[in-house]
Specification:
The structure holds two protein chains of two kinds. By secondary structure, chain A is α/β, with parallel strands linked by helices. Chain A folds into two domains: 82 residues, Elongation Factor Tu (Ef-tu), domain 3 (Beta Barrel), CATH 2.40.30; 115 residues, Nucleotide-binding domain of ferredoxin-NADP reductase (FNR) module (Rossmann fold), CATH 3.40.50. In chain A, 15% of the residues lie in helices and 33% in strands. A six-stranded antiparallel beta sheet of chain A has the order 4-3-6-1-2-5, covered by helices on one side. A six-stranded parallel beta sheet of chain A has the order 10-9-8-7-11-12, with helices on one face. In chain A, helix 3 links the parallel strand 8 and strand 9. Chain A is globular and about 50 Å long. The two termini of chain A are 24 Å apart. In chain B, the strands form two sheets. An eight-stranded mixed beta sheet of chain B has the order 7-6-5-4-3-2-8-9. A two-stranded antiparallel ribbon of chain B has the order 1-10. Chain B is of the alpha/beta class. In chain B, 33% of the residues lie in helices and 16% in strands. In chain B, helix 2 runs parallel beside helix 3. Chain B has one domain: Aldolase class I (TIM Barrel, Alpha-Beta Barrel), CATH 3.20.20.70. Chain B has 14 helices and ten strands. The chains are: A alpha/beta, B alpha/beta. At the A-B interface, strand 3, strand 4 and strand 12 of A face helix 4 and helix 5 of B.
Chain lengths: 222, 304
């Protein structure tokens, strides 16, 4: 189990931060996660948001109430070490779409991490569309990078203004391109994934083209 | 009880000869795909969870070596358990290799790791041997299942069970067995869910008693040689999994052959690096989980 040195912690606000760990010799594919351990040996899996060519491993961490691992990670300082598992995972944005097939990414919250990893690793394979749902603008990660994508749409549910869509990301379902050659990757909140999957299947999309990864639950279950 | 191969391995605490099974045949070879799992169930008999590495990922090279050796020994079936097998990055390739030779059984929680690889799994219908899935549905009450396995996972597992059946794969389920339960009534209460999923009412239901966490110690009656002959007949003794199967487990970078699917937490049950050597070794019934097999007739296997 590698012990990785903390490179930096960048807070978006008190409950949301990017943890950067020095990469050492860790190799991974976009979409991979690593279990990060606190000092008591408790662990939680976090998806890597860094590109495969970067020197640091980036993780987007949302502090959960009484979160034994997320609270502990939030208190790390540069130079501290964090024990981590080897990378693993079953959600691989873009991997199931062979050459010529198209992808649509739909994320809420920190569920954008695997998509950022894909975009940073494969800048010449952008998705057909990327929908990103957050509650407040302060919750957004890497907005400047994402806004470079021609098919990017931001949905902010709690605040309006700044030119973004005001509402839940599922309110944008009607704008999602439909096609037999498109693979759909959904990551983040359970209810978003469930609603969007149902909408896609009802719209005629084969279930084998719908790829899912739940990061957190509407009711706050960890 | 000490579980290394000292005298305590051969005799009980009362100094009576310990009960044992002398393996007769290799009908079924199990592979442990690794204790890495997408879920974190508090009761998991393997202690599996995301990122766990107590038992490492089986590799395609490992699997090929033991598939070849098992074929020489006349194996009839390959079976796979985890962890969640579909978390293993080489698992679909391993299944492909195994299905070239024998029918296969996969134990799965039927959630995202399998759901996200369904396109690859559907291609396995073209292989020369049949593939069957055993999906974990712990309780016939979705809320109870989700209490341990995570919200929404009963529905996902049920949906996937139905999709696998409709795709032409064999399916069964595994559930937890509660002490004092009316087993046929519990089995029957799954039927409405089977109908929702579109699977037959009478699919096989494998029931598992409480096996406790790996490495835990539980006071259970010890099994003596006398117990094995006084309380069990020859057919019942032959039904012990350690009589007709073995399991491949990868730890610390190398594979060992273990006596069965439930004893990989005790190194004494590592019977060696080859199946031939392992088949010659007597299996002493000293693990607390051996008592479940003795008393409940528990078996991970689905023999035809």
């Amino acid at each position: 189990m590698p012990a990785l040195k903390v490179h930096n912690i960048v807070f978006r606000h008190d409950d949301l931060f990017e943890l950067q760990l020095e990469r050492s010799d860790v190799s991974f594919e976009p979409g991979a996660c690593m279990a990060l351990f606190n000092e008591d040996g408790d662990s939680r899996p976090y998806s890597i948001s860094a590109g495969t060519q970067e020197n640091v491993l980036r993780f987007l961490v949302r502090r959960v109430p009484n979160g034994r691992v997320s609270d502990w990670l939030a208190l790390r300082k540069p130079g501290d070490t964090v024990e981590a598992s080897d990378p693993f995972g079953w959600f691989r944005p873009g991997r199931s779409a062979p050459a010529g097939e198209r992808c649509v990414f739909i994320a809420t919250g920190t569920g954008v991490a695997p998509f950022l990893s894909h975009l940073r690793s494969n800048p010449f394979k952008p998705p057909e569309m990327c929908l990103y749902g957050i509650r407040r603008l302060a919750d957004a990660f890497a907005l400047e990078e994402l806004e470079c994508l021609s098919g990017f749409r931001l949905a902010v549910s709690k605040t309006s203004g700044h030119g973004h869509f005001h509402g839940r990301v599922t309110d944008l379902c009607e704008q999602i391109p439909l096609g037999e050659d498109i693979h759909y990757y959904l990551c983040g909140l359970d209810t978003m994934i469930e609603e969007t999957s149902q909408w896609l299947e009802a719209s005629g999309i084969d279930y084998t083209h719908i790829h899912r990864e739940i990061f957190f639950y509407e009711d706050g279950q960890d | 009880m000490k579980m290394d191969k000292t005298d305590a391995w051969l005799t009980t605490s009362q100094n009576e000869p310990r009960g044992y099974i002398q393996p007769q045949t290799l009908e079924e070879l199990w592979f442990h795909t690794g204790t890495n799992c997408n879920l974190r169930c508090p009761f998991c008999l393997e202690g599996s969870k995301p990122g766990d590495n107590r038992i490492e990922f089986l590799t395609l090279d490992d699997a090929r070596r033991f598939i070849d050796e098992a074929l020489e020994l006349g194996v009839k079936k390959f079976s796979f358990t985890g962890g969640e097998p579909f978390v293993n990055p080489e698992f679909v390739a391993i299944l492909e290799a195994a299905l070239d030779h024998r029918p296969c059984l996969v134990l799965t929680n039927a959630t995202e790791p399998l759901m996200n690889q369904m396109a690859d799994v559907l291609r396995l219908r073209d292989k020369p041997h049949a593939l069957k899935f055993r999906v974990s549905l712990d309780h016939p009450d979705p809320a109870k299942h989700d209490e341990s396995r995570g919200k929404g996972n009963f529905k996902k597992a049920l949906d996937t069970l139905g999709r696998l059946h409709q795709a032409g794969f064999g399916v069964s389920i595994a559930r937890l067995m509660l002490s004092g339960e009316d087993s046929s009534a519990v089995d029957q209460s799954y039927v409405p869910f089977f109908r929702i999923a579109g699977v037959p009412d009478d699919i096989t239901i494998i029931k598992f008693p409480e096996f406790h966490l790996p490495g835990s110690f539980h006071e259970v009656p010890e099994i003596t040689e006398t117990c094995m002959t006084r309380y069990l007949n020859a057919e019942q003794r032959a039904g012990f999994m350690c009589n007709f199967s073995k399991m491949i487990v990868r730890k610390n970078g190398q594979c060992g052959v273990y006596a069965c699917t439930l004893v990989d937490d005790v190194n004494g049950y590592d019977l060696g690096p080859t199946l031939k050597a392992a088949m010659e070794k007597r299996v002493m019934l000293g693990h607390h989980r051996c008592y479940s097999c003795f008393a409940c007739g528990a078996s991970c296997s689905e023999r035809a």
